[in-house]
Write a structure and sequence with these properties.
Elements lengths: L2 H20 L13 E4 L3 E4 L2 H12 L4 H15 L9 E7 L5 E6 L36 H12 L6 H13 L1 E2 L2 H9 L1 H7 L16 E2 L2 H13 L2 H4 L1 H13 L6 H5 L4 E3 L2 E5 L2 E5 L6 H12 L4 H4 L4 H21 L10 H4 L2 H7 L29 E6 L5 E7 L57 E5 L2 E7 L5 H14 L5 H6 L3 E2 L7 E4 L5 H10 L3 E4 L6 E5 L5 E4 L8 E4 L1
Parallel strand pairs: 15-16
Antiparallel strand pairs: 1-18, 2-10, 2-19, 3-4, 3-11, 4-7, 5-6, 8-9, 9-12, 10-11, 12-13, 13-17, 14-15, 17-18
Helix pairs in contact: 2-3, 3-4, 3-5, 5-8, 12-14, 12-17, 14-19
Bound molecules: 6-diazenyl-5-OXO-L-norleucine.
The site of 6-diazenyl-5-OXO-L-norleucine (DON) has 15 residues, from loops.
């Protein structure tokens, strides 16, 4: 063989060999995400197939929707560490089969030693990163108190132990991580290493899809909760481990903060749109009020005739969004600390007046509504939402979060879970935006024991008095507009739930004065027409990630997970 040919052949084999040996042979994972199901009796949609599975098992053995939702939340704390949690907080909206409604607020609270200027330097400027990373960013966690309270009041399975055990098993025996989780874990290694030390199951040179994640310390913590209830987390060794962790950084949370934490029942915020009744979360979330404001502002207009993603429809919806978010910044905060003018904000007269300067041809300038500065969204969208309907028709819509991926990146060494960075949802200084670009003022200023304002919008919708839809999403400030648009897509544009969830979305939050739009969401003609009206665009890959259930005309349930999150999973039977 001529020498040259031999060299080429050798090179060929070498490249082939190298290619094969470097190809990452991903271990198989023993679950698969399903995006759409139709079920005769009951459905669960959650951000992870293993958590959906836990929820379905609880339903099958006689638990109701609240039992299933509670078990799913504990499971998510194990299998979805980027956002599922016991170190964060959330909201649960419930509608029982006989039409009773309830809203549970287990949002994190500012520690007692927190104060208005805690994230400012001596010149009064916000110190970058202090409210988003590290020990000072954590609010007092509410998840465990919330889940125990939801089960106490509405659960059917006698002993909550049965709802926690599946999570303990997953933590103790381990589970195989998804591709998305592996990618996230790799992305945040530097931040993890800044605040945590080995040994720690989340510190590793490289995570691969299918790697077995065992969380022994988390299993021990879950056992404390299983055996001692609320005291298993808010008192005793787990509480001590949290405070020891906080002390090792620059945090201020104390044992007393933990001991005093209570989840609170609130009156859900309720509004009508046509023949629909919207049941959603009141403060300390802004979600329900802003959602109903937007719906009421667009209701008088013939959206259906304008057509889906027509310039007129988008323009109208954007102008409603702009006005609702301007109100959010000024008027919304924890209603236990600030007198939120809830009735006025939702009154027909007020909302009619709010649209008085709406022009069908021109964008309203945000600084003509209220002034402020802005910055763009930086975070990816990680929180969790779960929708559940049981065989009797009880429905639960629950959203819970650590805020950013893996919260403040501090893992409680003695107890095995990440703490939230929810303090960033306060307004650290009037007019200065948080990580979602949201501004706030007095209503959402930091005060000891106050809950920071949220955008989470767990929602249940009735049609003609019957259960119709259960939905919610992660996605920071874009949650409210996503819930708004998915509902409008179904109610006005006649879409199936799947089409409504998959459709491209847009988002306006007053400041910055721009429409955030998912890539390829609109035809070019719509973009050009909107630009001619004076709108500006910022493009993003994806926004909020909806998980929803709808009752079909034949009475069956359709569950839909969002393709925006590969792990979203719908199950039912
Ligand atoms: O409560 C809120 O509004 C936020 N902390 C939610 C954060 C979230 O959805 C994270 N994803 N972007």
């Amino acid at each position: 063989m001529p020498k040259k040919k031999f060299h080429l052949l050798f090179l060929g084999f070498f490249v082939l060999f190298l290619g094969n040996s470097c190809k990452k042979t991903a271990p198989a994972i023993d679950y698969q995400a399903t995006k759409v199901i139709v079920a005769d009796s009951a459905a669960v949609v959650s951000p992870h197939p293993l958590a959906t599975r836990v929820g379905l098992e609880v339903l099958k053995k006689g638990g109701n929707a609240v039992d299933a939702a509670v078990a799913v939340q504990f499971a998510l704390a194990v299998v979805y560490p980027r956002a599922g949690n016991i170190g964060g907080g959330g909201f649960m909206v419930i509608r029982t089969e006989d039409g009773q409604t309830a809203a549970l607020d287990y949002r994190e609270k500012a520690p007692m030693a927190a104060h208005r200027d805690m994230y400012l330097d001596s010149l009064g400027n916000v110190i970058d990163g202090l409210s988003t990373e590290g020990h000072l960013a954590a609010g007092v966690p509410g998840s465990v108190a919330g889940l125990i309270e939801a089960h106490r009041k509405f659960g059917r399975i006698q002993d909550i132990k049965e709802l926690i055990q599946p999570a303990i098993d997953l933590a103790e025996k381990g589970f195989h991580i998804s591709e998305t989780e592996a990618a996230r874990l790799n992305r945040f290694q530097d931040a993890f290493r800044k605040y945590n030390e080995e040994p720690n199951p989340f510190l590793k040179d490289s995570f691969q899809m299918g790697a077995l994640l065992i969380q022994k310390k988390l299993a021990a913590t879950l056992k404390e909760i299983r055996d001692k209830g609320k005291a298993g987390f808010y008192e005793g060794p787990v509480a001590e481990a949290i405070v020891e962790e906080i002390r090792s950084g620059n945090g201020v949370m104390t044992l007393e903060d933990l001991r005093q934490y209570e989840a609170l029942w609130r009156d859900p915020v309720i509004g009508r749109y046509d023949n629909f009744r919207i049941i959603s979360m009141p403060p300390s979330s802004s979600g329900g009020i802003a959602l109903i404001q937007m719906l009421k502002m667009v209701e008088p207009y013939p959206l259906h005739n304008y057509g889906f993603h027509s310039a007129s429809a988008v323009h109208l919806m954007v102008e409603a969004e702009r006005r609702a978010y301007a109100d959010r910044a000024e008027h919304l905060g924890d209603s236990d600390f600030y007198d939120v003018p809830r009735d006025s904000l939702l009154s027909d007269t007020y909302l009619h007046a709010r649209m008085a300067n709406f022009s069908p041809r021109h964008a309203t300038q945000s600084d003509s509504i209220f002034a402020g500065s802005f910055k763009l969204l930086k975070e990816s969208f990680e929180t969790t939402h779960t929708s559940v309907v049981d065989s009797e028709g009880n429905a639960v819509s629950v959203t819970t979060t650590l805020n950013s991926n893996y919260g403040c990146k501090v893992w409680v060494d003695g107890a095995g879970f990440f703490l939230n960075n929810e303090m960033d949802d306060f307004s650290a200084k009037p007019g200065v935006p948080n990580q979602f670009g949201l501004v706030g003022a007095e209503a959402n200023a930091i005060q000891p024991e106050k809950r920071m304002l949220s955008s989470m919008t767990p929602t249940i919708i009735e049609k003609d008095g019957e259960l119709f839809m259960v939905l919610g999403a992660p996605g920071g400030s874009t949650i409210i507009t996503a819930v708004f648009q998915v509902f409008i897509n179904v109610a006005e544009f006649g879409m199936s739930l799947e089409e409504a969830v998959n459709a491209g979305r847009f988002h306006h939050q007053w400041l910055p004065d721009a429409i955030l739009i998912e890539s390829n969401a609109f035809p070019d003609s719509t973009i050009q027409a909107l630009e001619a009206m004076g709108h500006h665009f910022n493009h993003v890959g994806r926004m909020a990630v909806i998980k929803a259930i709808i009752r079909l005309p034949d009475g069956r349930l359709q569950g839909v997970g969002d393709p925006r999150n590969p792990d979203d999973d719908a199950g039912g039977y």
